[in-house]
Amino acid sequence: MGETRYLIIGGGISGTTAADTIRQQDAGGEITIVSGEPYRLYSRIMISKPHYFLGKVPPEQIWLKKEAWYTDKNIKLIAGKTAVKLEPNAKTVTLNDDTVLPYDKLLLAVGICARRWSAPGADKKGIHYVRTLEDFQGYQPASKTAKQGVVIGGGAIGFEMCELMRLAGLDTTLVIREPHYWDPVLDQTSGRLIEAALERGGVKIIRGQYVTEAYGGDSVEGLVLQDGRRLPCQMVSVGIGGFCPLDWLKDSGLKVNRGVVANEYLEASLPDIWTAGDAAEYFDPIYEEQLQFGSWSNAQNQGKVAGSNMAGQKQPYRLVTFYAVSGLGVSIAFIGNVNPPAPDSGKQVVSRGSFELNNHGRYIIKGSRIVGATLINRTVDVGPLTKLIEQRVDVSGKLQELADPKIDLKTLLPA
Amino acid sequence: MAERKIAKLEVKRDLCIGATPCVVAASTALELDGENKAVYKLKDGSKSSGPVDKSQLEDATLTDDVLLVSAQSCPVKAIFLYDEQGQQIYPE
Predict the structure, then answer these.
(1) Which ipTM value was assigned to this complex?
(2) How far B43 CA sits from the closest chain A CA (Å)?
(3) Domain A127-241 CATH superfamily
(4) How far is residue A41 from each of residues A33, A69, A82, A303, measured CA to CA in Å?
(5) Given CB atoms, is B66 within the 8 Å cutoff of chain A?
């Protein structure tokens, strides 16, 4: 019998960590990574962080692996190519240059792409997305010549781009269609705390408005809002969510929803196929729900579990997911499952803190235990919350303590 | 790894974004503090972003491999490792 052929679609942190993990457990297997971007692994996180944006760290720090790493580990990297067809019976993946790659074990770690804004003029120069190194190479220099910038979208990218535009000295306006920041994931108090930080940082906020058009010549000269207002600008940053590039799988018979559907072992619906990272819609044994998370830590650790399982182990993915973003004097942290509870979900939300106290925590309770939390300026809760969620601690008799900002959450942990 | 032994460790607080892979990779070595920055857990019970001596770490069983993997897991390269001569081992 020949060596196992491992094929990994996706060269980001998840796919690369999987490759590394497989190599630790299978010295002789053939490992191939296909990356849609024409580079080796880099830090997607850095492209929206002030130090990198302002050039305070050397540009080469973006690379997380040396080129030699791939050859040293005997991992073949096919960069700048995308998968266009999966044939699970023949066990092959076809690339956009017609290369057909056979596999014994396949990992789909295709990540998430920035959702494109569609409106008249949305393709003009000066309208930027924040996902790839190529995106960065567009907006970083653009920020040096623009005077006025507009950020569309109230999420993590919107928040970070507001800060970067202000650091670059732009007159910055944020347009959100929701009534408050990060609605409905955050409540009004949490959203207002973020808005207050943005406003203190010099960002003008327009709520409850769509952008209907971008005007100008080849390059954007301004945006038109739903109510007819015109916002002159030379730079626009769009952060309106993302989608997983899964169209190529639709005729394969693989079960795909918003992400690749998988069980707690990250096994997809067909044999010898796994998924990991932002594109994995997996059954989470902690929350007992089918979930999808987009965070670095999640992608990295799912890559590790999927890689191990591909090499012959059988481990469930079990990690209390954490995502944090901070800047302009405010910290925002999401722990566990923060999806807004549906009215019929049986979940309830307990809050502590207030706008006046400049901190606000929301703890999402399912049955008798906490399954997630959103924290504004309450990083102090992160440690105990992670344990409360992971250990499935019964808090049903302690909701008053949970709502009281004077009580340390550590006291809710079993002795 | 490395012929060069880790002697000092440091989390650069201005770079750290609190993404936590370092904590996942070495949970007995690191945690996040109230400012969402990673700190090393020391045997005197205190926490510090450092620089700290490896010998000060609370968990004396931590190997250089684990500490290196933890540093390498940082997506913004905020963790710096130094050898006994004070030379930087990581980031390379």
Answers:
(1) 0.86
(2) 19
(3) FAD/NAD(P)-binding domain (3.50.50.60)
(4) 11, 10, 16, 14
(5) no
